[in-house]
Amino acid sequence: MQQVLVSLGSYGAWEVRRHGQAAFARIALDAGADGVEVRGELLTGAGDELTRIRSIVGEARLVYSSPEGLWRDGAFDDAAVGRAIDAARLLGAPQVKMAIGAFDGSGPVHELARFGDAGIELLIENDQTESAGTLDALRSFYRSTDGADGMEGPGLTFDMGNWHWTGECPMLAAQALGARVAYVHCKGVQRQPTRWVAVPIADSAAPWRALLRAMPKGKPWAIEYPLAGDDLVEVTRREIALLRAASAALRVIPAEAGIQGVLQPAVEALDSRLRGNDGLEPRP
Question: I want to staple 3 with a disulfide (CB 3.0 to 4.6 A). Which of 22, 54, 74, 220 is the partner?
Answer without folding.
Answer: 220
